[in-house]
Amino acid sequence: MRALLIAVVLVAAPAPLLAQEAEDDLTLPPVVMSTEFPGEIEVEPYERSNANAGATPFEGTEMWETFGGADGVSAIVETFVDRIVADPRIAEIFVAQDLVRTRRTLKEQFGYILGGPVAYSGRDMRSSHADLGIQSADMGALVENLQIAMSEHGVPFRAQNRFLAKLAPMRRDVVTR
Length: 177
Ligand code: HEM
Fold this sequence. Notes:
mainly alpha, Globin-like, binds protoporphyrin IX containing FE
């Protein structure tokens, strides 16, 4: 009889716990997942334009080819973001951000600026970095990681520097303190 009672208690116990958990879930803020890009979180509506990329593209496809085309740019951005989120100087800024979206839009932005057959669909640099409190030193750390990523994927120094020169003026929109 005692064994039966224990069994009943054990079987019955999880039900109210689950109900409680379900109620708690309802109190969390809603996260709207994007229906357009799987795995991404919806952002406030904005007007899409290549002008949001923050730089005019190189003419021709030479730079795009030097970076290895779509595969090369994709590999560089993956290494770049992996390094950033593991860099103790700036990792904290990326906690709780949508890195699926950031990886995708960075690939678009780099591809577009490099003269590839790519459109940029992300937000402009000023509004996407406005609330992040980025300092000049954070920008330096980010660029350092990008240089290492480009070197790892065989981009010659001259091409690296030409690309960095396109990104440099974005500092004024990204660094806010
Ligand atoms: C030239 C320099 C930079 C470029 C080209 C750049 C590019 C981008 C792009 C394309 C996005 C995605 C925009 C979108 O979601 O629509 C983004 C988001 C982001 N960037 Fe940058 N960025 C730069 C500098 C920095 C720096 C220095 C930091 C901090 C160390 C930073 C932190 C972030 C974070 C946390 C997000 C995600 C924001 C969000 O999802 O709301 N960025 N950046």
